[in-house]
């Protein structure tokens, strides 16, 4: 595994979330997120323990299983969600 690969905490060595790492690896623009089958599959598999923008969960009709979700850094997840909301406005 290379040092560029995200760790279990969900934050890469470059300070991006694992979601951002996956988007970059898939070379997706923001406009392409919703139509990407690869991203949707990654989100489906990782939504319970990795950060995913709330609008994608809602768009795809996915819910986070709170019982499975790791305690991780809940403050970081909330901070990222606030950032996403601010970008959307």
What descriptors fit this protein?
single chain; mainly alpha; 0% strand; disordered N terminus
Give the arrangement of secondary structure elements.
Elements: H1 18-25, H2 37-46, H3 54-59, H4 74-88
Characterise the protein shown here.
The chain has 89 residues and is mostly helical. The protein contains four helices and no strands. It has helices at 18-25, 37-46, 54-59, 74-88. The longest helix has 15 residues, at 74-88.
Count of alpha and pi helical runs: 4
Strand % is: under 5%
Give the beta-strand count: 0
Helix content: 40-55%
The major pleated sheet works out as: none
Number of domains: 1
How would you sum up the global shape? globular
Report how far apart the termini are: 38 Å
Rg estimate, integer Å:
13 Å
Low-confidence stretches: 1-9
Secondary structural class: mainly alpha
SSE series: HHHH
Average residue-wise pLDDT? 80
